[in-house]
Amino acid sequence: MNVQLRSDPAVSAASRVAIADCDIHPATRGAADLHPWLSQSVREQLETFGQRRRLGMEAGPAYPKSQPNASRRDALPPEGGRQGSSLSFMQAQHLDPNNVVLGILNPLNSGQGLANPELSAAVCRAVNEWQVAEWTGKDRRLKASVVVPYDHAEASAAEIRHWAGHPDFVQVLFLSRTAEPLGNRRYWPIYEAAAEAGLPVSVHAFGYGGAPITSTGWPSYYIEEMTGHAQSCQAGLTSMLVEGIFERFPRLRVVMVEAGFAWAPSLAWRLDKTWRTLRAETPHLKQAPSEYMRQHVWWTTQPMEEPETREHLLDTIGWMGWDRLLFATDYPHWDFDDPAHVLPLRITEAQRSSFFLNNARALYGVDA
Amino acid sequence: MSKHVVAPVAEVPPGSHKRFTVKGRPIAVFNLAGEYFGMLNRCPHQGGSLCAGAVTGLLLSSEPGAYRLERKGEFVRCPWHGWEFDIRTGQSYCDPAKFRGKAYPVSVAPGAEVVKGPYVADTVPVVVEDQYIVVDV
């Protein structure tokens, strides 16, 4: 296979601006990678019954992903294994040439959202141990997410407290499609533990809650799932805003990952308008929904909207604030954003450095 | 523009493609049933390596539910975001008005002419009796 690496990583990296990548997906080479941290009984459970998700009769992803493992076709490690499973190839293809000085790991297929809550908790713990042993412990640029079995709040809170204070963990990871909308009080113990640990809660698009991607049933095409993440994440974020979790946990910070961001202003305008007239329904909200959004929510950039008139993005970001966006590539997935091409706009140096690095440094408290 | 020998024709048999570096530029050479086409190996959208993409046809539809695959093997799909390019022209089929892969003329020259002619072989040794792929960059 022809794999194109940037010609000389050392040279091109030196000439490239240092960036944070806030959405990198490491993968295991196979189930055995997690065995060191799984008990014999859990291993047998997995081998015998598998990982049952809340998706009825479905075993794999709801829609075929258009590229193998939803990944770039040039991201297969030369030594074998699936895309994202080789640290050395990730370094050679992505971290070094793109001058990534801070990379946030968001492991998927990590036991989150399994129907069996104890199994979910056991796999999540193993994935967290694996992140430290195989990734953050071997490359100091990488930071991990505490993967939690979010539909089992008690175990999730315990998982967060187990890792709280560990320098390699910088956030708590949710998938967006939980069994109930994200603001539901069944999840509050998780938000409480995250706020207490000072860890942002990152909500990555996808998940296995059992509901269709749209609010009106199962659509026919993958493109509808891809664009539907925005709708589904709007529902999740709306729930977080109006249930009052930011009143209850004022230190809580949330990162919306891979759901787009250009919809944020319109959602906020709609919420504010309706909140003014229905204020008495949610008297626990002390300020307009948009204010909670601006104070508590950050957004990763990939997949960035690409309006025909590029300046429309400037208007959107102007409303959201240049301090709220976290650059992300989604490596090794097929909808990867290349840092060299992603922002063809005339912006100030301060805006550029906030977008590519400083916002992530500030949010995660990492001196990269 | 100058002509560059990149490989013996046997190195890129019909239906295959290969990446070469010519004057520092990555060039993808495709062989469509004996006809050669070259393209800058960098997707005009975000720079993905076109050589790593899937080669496919153009799937068309006259109405919902009716599909036909035309020009099988004559399109390359970017390995990152799936943009489709006509290998013959570099024309993009996702957004034809906006994107076109950069096409380079590719020809086949007999070995003797190559050795004597004004070509610059780039990393590929030239042997007289064989046929060579020449890229004009």
Question: Can you characterise this structure?
Answer:
The complex is a heterodimer of chains A (368) and B (137). Chain A is built from twelve helices and eight strands. Chain A has an eight-stranded parallel sheet with strand order 1-2-3-4-5-6-7-8. Chain A is globular. The model of chain A has no long low-confidence stretch (mean pLDDT 93). The relative contact order of chain A is 0.14. In chain A, helix 5 packs parallel to helix 6. Chain A has helices at 9-15, 40-49, 87-95, 117-136, 153-163, 188-197, 222-243, 245-248, 264-277, 289-296, 311-320, 349-364, and strands at residues 19-24, 100-105, 142-147, 169-175, 201-204, 254-257, 297-300, 325-326. Chain B is mostly beta strands. Chain B has one domain: Rieske [2Fe-2S] iron-sulphur domain (Rieske Iron-sulfur Protein). Helix content of chain B is 4%, strand content 47%. Chain B has one helix and ten strands. Chain B has one helix at residues 111-116; strands spanning 3-8, 17-22, 25-32, 35-40, 54-63, 66-77, 84-86, 103-104, 106-110, 131-136. Chain B is globular and about 50 Å long. The chains are: A alpha/beta (368), B mainly beta (137).
Keywords for this entry:
heterodimer; A: 368 residues; alpha/beta; TIM Barrel; eight-stranded parallel sheet; 8 strands; 38% helix; 11% strand; B: 137 residues; mainly beta; Rieske Iron-sulfur Protein; four-stranded antiparallel sheet; 1 helix; 4% helix
